[in-house]
Amino acid sequence: MTIITFMSKVKGKTQKRKPVKRGPKMPIKKGDFILINYTSKVKETGETFDTTNEETAKQQKLHKEGDIYEPKLVVVGEGWVLKALDETLPKFKIKKKDSVEISPEKAFGNRDPEKLKLVPLRRLVARGITPKLGMQLEYDRKIATIRTMGSGRVQLDFNPPLAGKTLIYEVTIEKKLETTPEKISALIRRRIPTVEANKFNFKTTKTNVTINIPEEALYLEGIQLAKRGIATDIQRLLPEITTVKFIETFKKRETTPTPEQPKQKSN
């Protein structure tokens, strides 16, 4: 069994906070943990480019095997979604479908003609690339989209694919997480989405959390980085918790004995 502990540094003594007068209660505020479903579209074309809904993903031919379609965890104000959407979330109501229109300037910026580049077709072929219109590729360590092809040349566009587009997000806040266990479970899920959340057992005290990692998660690629991320998220977003401990248990697998073969009688 392996036990790994992450401890945050606390400077100085804890001071009592003075009572703060609060105004009218808002359903959603900065720092809240919420689960949202959304579908995002390009206003100019109506094209859907992202969604948390599996049925929508299939209808719009966005579905990818292995991707997980479920409400997304957002901590309001943490920049886990576009800033313009993040700033709008406090205006939304729980369980009510809302939408927000985001201008190019507040989304992925306007298109920059300086980021268009013509390259010889033979140069791409020499790199083992068979170019196709709309294809995304890495060129000179940058991601580009092929916009045009002809006369032995290919136009590469190094602008973000959604640059110059007005975006529309249709959002439903499904739930606001209130308890510390709910928040910890959601933070674990965010970092390790391929293992069912109920397989992570954990115990909390006022300042500590101990998380038992299921054996199937121990062999995932990047699990050590995921654990570090979970610990960092918990200590930063739940500042009352100063110590995060992970317990890894490896159980010996029982082997089935091979049945003895009957001895052959000698003549």
Brief overview:
With 267 residues, the protein is an alpha+beta fold. It contains five helices and 13 strands.
Report the helical percentage. 10-25%
Radius of gyration: 26 Å
Largest sheet: 5 strands, antiparallel
What is the molecular shape? Answer: extended
CATH class identity of the largest domain? Alpha Beta
CATH architecture of the largest domain: Roll
Mean model confidence by pLDDT: 90
Task: Kindly describe this structure.
- The chain is an alpha+beta fold and 267 residues long.
- It folds into 3 domains: 27-108 and 165-177, Chitinase A, domain 3, CATH 3.10.50; 113-157, Thrombin, subunit H (Beta Barrel), CATH 2.40.10.330; 179-249, Alpha-Beta Plaits, CATH 3.30.70.
- Helix content is 17%, strand content 30%.
- It is built from 5 helices and 13 strands.
- It has helices spanning 54-59, 83-88, 121-126, 180-191, 223-237; strands at residues 2-7, 33-42, 48-51, 72-75, 97-102, 116-120, 136-139, 142-150, 153-157, 167-177, 201-204, 208-213, 243-248.
- The strands form 3 sheets. Strands 2, 3, 4, 5 and 10 form a 5-stranded antiparallel β-sheet that branches. A 4-stranded mixed β-sheet has the order 1-13-12-11, covered by helices on one side. Strands 6-9-8-7 form a 4-stranded antiparallel β-sheet.
- A hairpin with a 2-residue loop joins β8 and β9.
- α4 (180-191) runs antiparallel to α5 (223-237).
- The longest helix is centred in the C-terminal third of the chain and has 15 residues, at 223-237.
- The N and C termini lie far apart (55 Å).
- The model has no long low-confidence stretch (mean pLDDT 90).
